[in-house]
Amino acid sequence: MQASTPPLKPLSSRTKWLIALCLCIAVLLLEFLTYHMAYRIGYDEGALHTPPVVIQKSDEKAFQTLSRFMADVFASRESLAGILDKREERLAWIRDPEVRSETAWGLTRELISRGGVEQALPTARELIEAGYADGKRQVWAPRADAVARALLAEHQYAAAYDYLKTAVDGYEKESMAAELVKALQTMSSIDQILNRNDQANGLLQRAVEASARLGSDSLAVKSRLLAAQGRLARAAGHIPESRAYFKEALVLFPREQGKTTGDLALASISMGEAMLEAGRKEEARELFLKGLTGSENASYLLNDCLNALRGLARISTEQGNYEEALAYLHQAEGAARGVLPADHAFWAGLYDQRGWVNIMRKAAPEARADFLKAVSNAAVSPMIAAQSREGLGKAWLDAGEGAKARENLRQSIQVRESNFSSDTLSLGRVYHSLGIASDMEGDREGALQAYSRAVDALLKCGDGPERKNLLVQSYLCKAYALCDGEQWQEAVDAFEAVLPLLEGEQRSENYKQLGRCYDELGMTAKADECWKESGFPRVRRSSPVRRTDGGRISSRR
């Protein structure tokens, strides 16, 4: 029989505490060794990678976290704006300053895309200024440009202009020529919208100089910039200078273009104007339509789109399609309504052009209404003032109101002689109309004086169909006025002077009038020769039949 094992004695309290203490020491030692080993492995692994890769992975993780955070929390524009207002606190979890700045810009861009450009501006300005201070203009200049375009989409031209100036400063210092040219031309378009044409031209000249650094694209870009300068010169009444710009632009213009969007739309419209100035109307029409199709409602192209519509209206007017011209002008009016201020120079030009279309349509009341709107515009230019006063005079002539016609025609002459005295063709045309108005009022002396000045002005012009027609009519009207005053020798001089310009029936009629004048002078031999050349049977009258028909006045633009 096996002896029984005696029971174990229970552990004393002292032994129990000793065992517990040993276990604690073992656990702490194990934790320390495990942490140290993991830390070293992680450190060594991290040391195998270059810092940019580590930063990139960190950035990607941060943006992923931010994306999830935005999707979960920022459901409204206001909440996103709130995050930007307190971004130092709300983005404090991003330790890397560069990543935090990029995250703030991402939030700003998101807010702008949601229509919160006003709420995003304070943060955008601070971020851009900080980026410039850090010398990162190459990154932040395009971002300033992007903010400007967002402001332009909301027609906030003054605010957009400031951001574009910031972008231009960065582009210039970083030698970013292509971006610089685009920004300068956009600033020029804003200046035109704000009636600052001198500044607009200065910016275009800077853009022309910068375009020389564009390599193979420089000529194409320069062509559209020159065309834009031509438009400004024409608006200021500098016609020879304007034509020189357009002529040079046409030489540089590339014949083949790709898809017409954005800047190519702008180029098409600018070159359409150059084609129109050169008389190449169908090519101009095609370019205008192409530019309008490719504008994609870009607000910074508004000024150019309006010019394209007015160019199309001008082509339609010159081709006799008056209703089509009016349709284009009404379209331009609708596009500018609510965008351009009421005192903008665009309105004066639009109403002046529409007034002349209505003159061509024989719609004198509508023409007078448009011309009155043009001359009452606070920003009316001297050129538009001269044209609209002339148009009012013509409209009152058509209504048989000689006195009102004379009043407006005299104002037109005054503006022209003060500002555009070298434009002798236009001066001759207005003086001719003034002569007709004076005739209508029975003022023979006033009519004679106006016709004489018309002839003097037109003799200084270069050749052309409009000049020839006006010169013929002015000579004849002057001759008839002299006959009314029984100034036979002076009348003979006028009839003789116009003779080389006449053909066919006009020439025969002129010889008949000369024959009558020589009869009055008692110069029978001369009278016989003239009657024979005329082909009319000889008739003795006290004076030639008075004709006050001045012929058709040329269309205005």
Automatic annotation (TrEMBL):
<dbReference type="InterPro" id="IPR011990">
    <property type="entry name" value="TPR-like_helical_dom_sf"/>
</dbReference>
<protein>
    <recommendedName>
        <fullName>Tetratricopeptide repeat protein</fullName>
    </recommendedName>
</protein>
<dbReference type="Pfam" id="PF13374">
    <property type="entry name" value="TPR_10"/>
</dbReference>
<keyword id="KW-0802">TPR repeat</keyword>
<dbReference type="InterPro" id="IPR019734">
    <property type="entry name" value="TPR_rpt"/>
</dbReference>
<keyword id="KW-0677">Repeat</keyword>
